[in-house]
Amino acid sequence: MPIALEGQLASTPLTAELLFRQYARYVAHIALRIVGRDADVDEIVQDVFLVALTGLEDLREPEAVRGWLATITVRKAQRRLRYNRLQSWLGLDDEPDYESAVAAEASPEQHAIVRSVYKALDTLPVNDRVAWTLRYLQDERLENVAAIIGCSLATAKRRIAAAQQKLDEVLDDA
User: Fold this and answer.
1) Which residues contact 151 (CB under 8 A, 6 or more apart)?
2) Region 102-174: CATH code
3) Domain ranges across the chain
4) What is the pTM of this model?
């Protein structure tokens, strides 16, 4: 059975090229929101589509391709965050630059706020950070956050609340 993409005819078979063209920007957007560094985004996007292409034939619900890609993206971003933390702990990572997470037309104050938020996010447990980011930076509904990160709704709410509490503490001290 051919898989249709958003805006495509139902009879149009899903090819690697169509999948990438339709969803690469979406995947990159999620990755950037989660990791906050442009330098990591290209690698995450490549990894997501490598996984997607190998698992595409096993996709049971073709209309769920967007959510499926979001889940893969989150998992890859979580791995990247853990890797970055290890690199930083070992002293092998430079100070992160979060400028790419800020819109070009943003004011200097907005740039400073975004940098502060991402620095505060760096202090959170990875799972809490991802849940909070999906909810507040990606504007996902709570049910979608739980589905994407693979936990119960109650757990997603707890992670978001814990992240918000820690962010409030860190940002109030700044």
Assistant:
1) 159
2) 1.10.10.10
3) 1-95, 102-174
4) 0.81
Q: CA-to-CA distance for 84 and 69, rounded, in angstroms?
A: 22
**In the numeric block, which tokens belong to residue 161?**
């609340």
State the Cα–Cα distance between residues 83 and 96, nearest whole angstrom: 13
pLDDT by residue, tens only, the chain of 174 residues: 344 455 544 556 667 788 899 999 999 999 999 999 888 999 999 999 999 988 877 777 767 888 999 999 999 999 999 999 898 888 887 777 777 777 778 888 888 888 888 889 998 999 999 999 999 999 999 999 999 999 999 999 999 999 999 999 888 875
- Please give the Cα distance from 160 to 96 (Å, whole number): 23
Fold of 1-95: Rna Polymerase Sigma Factor; Chain: A (1.10.1740)
Residue 79's CB is within 10 A of a number of other CB atoms, namely: 13
The torsion of the CA quartet 165, 118, 127, 57, rounded to 10 degrees, works out to 140
